Amino acid sequence: MDSPNQKKPHGTSSTTTPRTVLVTGAGTGIGRATARAFADEGAHVVAVGRRAAPLAETAAHAPSRISPLVADVTADDGPETIVRTVLDRHGGIDVLVNNAGIVTTQSLRTYTRAAVEPQLATNLLAPVLLVQAALPAMEERRGVIVNVTTSVGQRAWPGNSLYAAGKAALEVLTRSWAVELAPLGIRVAAVAPGAIDTPIADHSGLTPEQRAAIRAWQLDHTPLGRIGRPGEVAWAITQLASPQASFITGVVLPVDGGAVVG
């Protein structure tokens, strides 16, 4: 029998007040689908991205629930500015989704500092600093952090090892933060997408032929035999962040059609 003094479950700021959700990289793909999925649940969503036009398209799905915020998560004052804006708009943060990510065509033989630093700044350092900036607000709401990694981070990815390594590091942070932040009432989890139909590769510098070759390789290594949809990853994110998942923390959930085990 539950004790009458039992603490409120993690990720349940209120049973009546809509939650406030912050999603980075929300202009396209998984970020857009996630922002819309939370809005469909009734949450207030702040959709963060670098470009105004894609964010406006994301927000058009539910203008009263999704507010765009043009900001660079890698800027020196980016994390503090983003958190301050969310608090000014909604007074708190219940869920933080670290989704923003970039991938390049560089490989071990061609890496330069100029190519390495932006990728690590977006995929690894930005989530660290954004979580740090949001901690006081999230502790107050007993919030949930969901990091978006990649299933390839659990396997070898020759030719694109830096992207996989940065996302694998984010998974280590997920498990570590889950333990570190549990006493504050904050849950931390991650989803690890496999091959998903998003435009992330469109900005990588790959030719259409190269992108087609990668897709063919991904299909060959996905037991379910198809490319995933952004909405399928968004569903996993919303489920991990839901009050019903209040006893789940530190988990990394593959959403990859079986690629990790195939």
UniProtKB/TrEMBL annotation:
<dbReference type="InterPro" id="IPR002347">
    <property type="entry name" value="SDR_fam"/>
</dbReference>
<keyword id="KW-0560">Oxidoreductase</keyword>
<feature type="region of interest" description="Disordered">
    <location>
        <begin position="1"/>
        <end position="20"/>
    </location>
</feature>
<protein>
    <submittedName>
        <fullName>SDR family oxidoreductase</fullName>
        <ecNumber>1.-.-.-</ecNumber>
    </submittedName>
</protein>
<dbReference type="GO" id="GO:0016491">
    <property type="term" value="F:oxidoreductase activity"/>
</dbReference>
<dbReference type="InterPro" id="IPR057326">
    <property type="entry name" value="KR_dom"/>
</dbReference>
<feature type="compositionally biased region" description="Polar residues">
    <location>
        <begin position="1"/>
        <end position="19"/>
    </location>
</feature>
<feature type="domain" description="Ketoreductase">
    <location>
        <begin position="19"/>
        <end position="199"/>
    </location>
</feature>
<dbReference type="InterPro" id="IPR036291">
    <property type="entry name" value="NAD(P)-bd_dom_sf"/>
</dbReference>
<dbReference type="Pfam" id="PF13561">
    <property type="entry name" value="adh_short_C2"/>
</dbReference>
